[in-house]
């Protein structure tokens, strides 16, 4: 009897693994503080709400790249394509669904935008399975260019280079209308960002997320221990596209506009930069990066309207040359060093 | 019909001159330099400045653009690029995008965002009639110059000692290094010449392409297509790819303006998927 009960108890190794997995998903003080501050911005910076919701949207886009690049190691220059697909899908749903209640609802719009983007992401994910970093870069870039071309040429649907006008989403869940001061837009964007962040956090802390990091570390060996590498990559690429699509849908709804600018190359590049600023592979990297990026754009843009790009480029060059892993990488490096000093003492 | 073909070939030749440096650097050092277009832009704007401000004749501007871009390339290679050879592709991409942004902002600051147009000398304007086709003198000029350059490059690559060292280094850098070939120096020289050719291409392009600060980003795509279709192991591959792209682009814009770009990008993606080493390349992908 006792023997059977004993054998049901997990082995010490299994317990250890369980503790490690649970420990990975515990919330730190800094994490909680981050979200409290983010929520407090509503009261602290009431005049900057539209900027803040833009930051939240860009952060979501950068988060989508983090899932694909930071965790699974797929180098992409075309995440803007999914952002644009999401924006246009949600924008069109809001435009043509206006009046007929469920279709113009923003939350439904999010799913339409994210769903379309995920569909395109799923189809194109098979293209990034093969090849080196360079091939992946160019294939993702090529897909983004094709989407850009489609948006520009299907004038009857997307409005071409004039952008999609008349996107008028109804009230969120039929209750909260979008207002002029961007209050609803801010809360709405933040809630969506937070919910999707929780989901992303759960994904990357799960065994599935761990397997992605293993693939990033060494695809050959991961395949050798029996991991379905291609399946995992397709899954995370599709999830990443969904995230980018939702970000695009949010952008279209809160600005009531969608333009080819959403699909353009610089959109993908900017989002990648944000992630790299903040540090890839931490989930918070993209969020921090989008805050820094957008603030920098605002401040430097006020000093020299069109030349802030120079400082952006200079920062990027310096970052690659001197700081590996972005701001979060720098911080965790410092923490490790302090810990080591503490251990030595 | 013949005119379009002719224009396309001229455009393709130009693209080749612009992109060839990138092909070699990619093949040699496995380095993704998205900022290649910035060197072409430097050459183009130098030509514009020299001609408009200093009244330098156009033909003198061409070598000046080559030297200027080559010097710039050498300088950047020695100071910045060489730190990045052993970094990941992502770092290389980010670094060179950073350079592109800086170059765009600098040109914007110095010249403004307007398109720059150059007044070509009289003997290069006008059109000739040849077999019923109307041929621009300037495009003929571009074709002649580029053909000479292509032949010259091919001869250097196949006939000289430097050429065989370069080919050895591209084929297998480690073995070449083991045989006592100074790959680092070869690379510095090649990088400088490649940048110089881009600058020369930019100078030649002033008569065909309109220059504005977004040039490096706009043409980055074309360079990448030339490389992906042509491969990086030969010089003829990118050449054929560039001609094809030039003709397809000009013809596409003329006949089916609505879907021209769409077709080109689709072909690029397909080639990348089906033949990652390039359409005309030999051997397996590196």
Summary of the model, kept short:
The complex is a heterodimer of chains A (345) and B (286). Chain A has 345 residues and is an all-alpha fold.
Characterization of this structure:
The complex is a heterodimer of chains A (345) and B (286). Chain A has 345 residues and is mostly helical. Residues 1-5 of chain A have low confidence and may be disordered. Chain A has helices at 2-8, 12-24, 29-44, 49-71, 79-96, 101-104, 106-125, 133-153, 155-158, 183-205, 207-217, 219-224, 229-255, 265-278, 284-303, 308-322, 326-344. In chain A, 76% of the residues lie in helices and 0% in strands. Chain A has a single domain, classed as ABC transporter involved in vitamin B12 uptake, BtuC. By secondary structure, chain B is an all-alpha fold. Chain B has eleven helices and two strands; from the N terminus they run ααααββααααααα. Chain B has a two-stranded antiparallel sheet with strand order 1-2. The longest helix of chain B has 28 residues, at 2-29. Chain B is globular and about 55 Å long. Chain A binds chain B through residues 69, 75, 77, 127, 130-135, 137-139, 141-143, 145-146, 149-150, 153, 265-266, 269, 272-273, 276, 306-310, 312-317, 319-321, and chain B through 26, 32, 80, 83-84, 87-91, 93-95, 97-106, 108-109, 113, 217, 221, 224, 228, 258-259, 261-262, 265-266, 268-269, 272-273, 276, 285.
């Amino acid at each position: 009897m006792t023997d059977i009960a004993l054998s049901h108890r997990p082995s010490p190794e299994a317990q250890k693994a369980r503790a490690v997995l649970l420990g990975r998903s515990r919330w730190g003080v800094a994490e909680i503080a981050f979200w409290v501050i983010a929520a407090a911005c509503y009261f602290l910076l009431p005049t900057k709400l539209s900027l803040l919701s833009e930051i939240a949207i860009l952060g979501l886009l950068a988060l989508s790249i983090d899932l694909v690049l930071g965790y699974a190691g797929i180098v992409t220059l075309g995440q803007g394509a999914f952002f644009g697909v999401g924006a246009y899908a949600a924008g069109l749903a809001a435009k043509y669904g206006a009046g007929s209640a469920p279709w113009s609802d923003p939350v439904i719009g999010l799913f339409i935008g994210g769903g379309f983007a995920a569909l395109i992401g799923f189809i194109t994910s098979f293209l990034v399975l093969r090849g080196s970093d360079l091939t992946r870069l160019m294939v993702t870039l090529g897909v983004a260019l094709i989407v850009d071309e489609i948006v520009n040429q299907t004038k009857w649907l997307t409005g071409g280079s004039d952008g999609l006008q008349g996107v008028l989403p109804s009230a969120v869940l039929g209750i909260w209308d979008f207002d002029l001061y961007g209050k609803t837009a801010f809360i709405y964007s933040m809630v969506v960002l937070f919910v999707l962040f929780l989901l992303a956090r759960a994904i990357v802390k799960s065994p599935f997320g761990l397997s992605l990091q293993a693939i990033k570390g060494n695809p050959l060996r991961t395949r050798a221990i029996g991991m379905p590498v291609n399946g995992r990559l397709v899954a995370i690429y599709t999830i990443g596209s969904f995230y980018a699509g939702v970000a695009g849908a949010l952008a279209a709804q809160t600005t009531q506009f969608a333009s080819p600018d959403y699909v353009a190359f610089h959109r993908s590049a900017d989002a990648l930069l944000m992630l790299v600023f903040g540090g890839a592979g931490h989930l918070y990297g993209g969020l921090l990066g989008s805050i820094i990026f957008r603030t920098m754009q605002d401040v430097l843009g006020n000093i020299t309207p069109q030349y802030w790009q120079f400082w952006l480029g200079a920062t990027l060059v310096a970052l690659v040359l001197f700081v590996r892993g972005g701001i979060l990488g720098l911080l965790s490096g410092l923490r490790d060093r302090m810990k080591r000093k503490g251990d030595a003492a | 019909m013949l005119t379009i073909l002719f224009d396309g070939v001229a455009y393709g030749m130009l693209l080749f001159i612009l992109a060839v440096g990138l092909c070699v650097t990619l093949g040699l050092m496995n380095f993704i330099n998205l900022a290649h277009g910035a060197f072409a832009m430097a050459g183009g704007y130098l030509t514009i400045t020299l001609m408009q401000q200093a009244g330098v004749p156009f033909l003198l501007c061409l070598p000046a653009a080559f030297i200027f871009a080559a010097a710039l390339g050498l300088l950047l290679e020695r100071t910045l690029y060489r730190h990045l050879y052993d970094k990941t592709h992502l770092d290389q991409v980010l670094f060179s995008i950073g350079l592109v942004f800086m170059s765009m902002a600098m040109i914007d600051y110095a010249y403004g965002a307007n398109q720059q147009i150059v007044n070509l000398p009289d003997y290069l304007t006008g059109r000739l009639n040849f077999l019923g086709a109307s041929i621009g003198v300037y495009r003929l000029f571009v074709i002649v110059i580029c053909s000479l350059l292509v032949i010259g490059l091919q001869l250097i690559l196949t006939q000289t000692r430097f050429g065989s060292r370069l080919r050895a280094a591209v084929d297998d850098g480690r073995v070449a290094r083991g045989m006592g070939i100074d790959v680092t120096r070869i690379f510095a020289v090649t990088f400088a010449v490649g940048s110089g050719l881009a600058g020369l291409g930019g100078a030649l392009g002033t008569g065909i392409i309109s220059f504005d600060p977004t040039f490096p980003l706009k043409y980055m795509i074309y360079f990448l297509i030339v490389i992906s279709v042509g491969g990086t192991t030969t010089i003829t591959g990118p050449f054929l790819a560039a001609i094809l792209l030039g003709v397809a682009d000009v013809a596409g814009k003329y006949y089916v303006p609505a879907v021209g770009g769409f077709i080109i990008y689709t072909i690029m993606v397909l080639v990348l998927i089906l033949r990652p080493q390039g359409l005309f390349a030999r051997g397996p992908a590196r």
